[in-house]
Amino acid sequence: MRVICIECGALGRINKTNRLSDNVAHLYCQCTDAECGYRWVSTLAYSRPLNPSRRSVGDAVLAVLGLSSEQRAILASTLNEQLAGEQKTDLNDKNKPIYQRR
Ligand SMILES: [Zn+2]
Predict the structure, then answer these.
(1) CA of 93 to the centre of ligand 1 (A)
(2) Gap between the Cα atoms of 49 and 55, Å rounded
(3) Ligand 1 centroid to 2 CA: how many Å?
């Protein structure tokens, strides 16, 4: 991971990571330009997944394989209802502003 000094634009070095939670950490950084010497703290936070973990997908598939045909039918029905609900929500979200200035 690269950090850039906001004072001079040179590459920064992460000297210490202070984990605040599973998803958030403070990075103690220092500019590598000796003439600048700027030091700062950046916050690193988990944002969102881009691709599901193969491990969790694999576990889910194994769990589904262990279900009876009746349980699979109930699961399919539940997932279809949930998917229909999400599609309705997506349509409503298109009309909402992404960012609203106060
Ligand atoms: Zn710098």
Answers:
(1) 42
(2) 14
(3) 14
Can you give the length of the chain in residues? 102
Q: State pLDDT tens for residues 56-89.
A: 877 878 788 888 888 888 888 988 998 888 877 6
- Which secondary-structure segment (H or E) carries 27? strand 24-31
**Residue among 42, 35, 46, 44 nearest 6 (CA):** 42
Give the pTM.
0.55
Task: Determine the distance separating the centroid of ligand 1 and the alpha carbon of 7, expressed in angstroms.
Answer: 5
Cα(30) to centroid(ligand 1), Å = 8
